[in-house]
């Protein structure tokens, strides 16, 4: 059986008013306080350290994110995705893609089987060279040296062999 106990509290009691004073300024003590256990010391104020960018995923203002985005695995994936930058072929060779608009055999390496220009993450080009590469491919198509709808079968076969060797499915004889 439950019993209810009614407690009356006098709100004008000076002890209660003293404990709940709204204008009372409370300061944090920066010294270590001793607890009941002599082996435990609890700091009241700790210094905040700046977290390196490799340990969190940067979010933009008003961007939605899920709890998985805050997990450690997601942050590891973000951290390692930054390092997977390919070297720019055009920069290494000190050649501008715009000057290669007449060499369709070189430009055909940067288009898909259906004739679409490969994205930057697959070509490994910098933003500047990717724009120049797209412009050179469009010029080559305009001249009529490169097909707009598909890749030439001879270049298609060489690329297919390369990717099959890379995956380990077929070895070149």
TrEMBL record:
Keyword Ribosomal protein listed: yes
InterPro entries referenced in this protein's UniProt entry, alphabetically: Ribosomal_bS18 (IPR001648), Ribosomal_bS18_sf (IPR036870)
One GO term of the biological process aspect: mitochondrial translation
Protein keywords: Ribonucleoprotein, Ribosomal protein
Gene Ontology CC: mitochondrial small ribosomal subunit
One MF term in the entry's GO annotations: structural constituent of ribosome
Pfam families in the record: Ribosomal_S18
Similarity comment: family membership: Belongs to the bacterial ribosomal protein bS18 family.
Family annotation (HAMAP family): Ribosomal_bS18
NCBIfam families: S18
Protein name as annotated: Small ribosomal subunit protein bS18m
Organism expressing this protein natively: Pneumocystis murina (strain B123) (Mouse pneumocystis pneumonia agent)
